[in-house]
Amino acid sequence: MKFMLLIHQGDTPTPRDPQAWATLSEEQQQAVFADYKAINMTPGVTPGVGMESPEMATTVRVKDGKTLTTDGPFAEMKEALGGYLLYEADDLDAAIELAARIPAARLGGAVEVRPIVQW
Q1: What is the fold of 2-115?
Q2: Longest pairwise C-alpha distance within the chain
Q3: pTM score, two decimals?
């Protein structure tokens, strides 16, 4: 089965926010980097990419044939999507186990696991 793991950063400290990142000890920072490296090297994982904050989003709609754009995310989000990865695993339990290893899951965020539709 294939799964998409959607990483919701929440208020998780990341290197993109130096003040929040500084709240982690050097040991914790190195652990975050090591965890993501190990996850990306896990068999069946296709690394995704991180995304800019929701404030950087542009939402696109088409109404009556006209393209309309709005600055910002489609909806107000408490736990914004910060990145993703794909994982081919034997079952949901394996995907959940991998999701639990993602640092955001233990540092204030969440990881949503979704099966990929096979057509």
Answers
A1: Alpha-Beta Plaits (3.30.70)
A2: 54
A3: 0.82
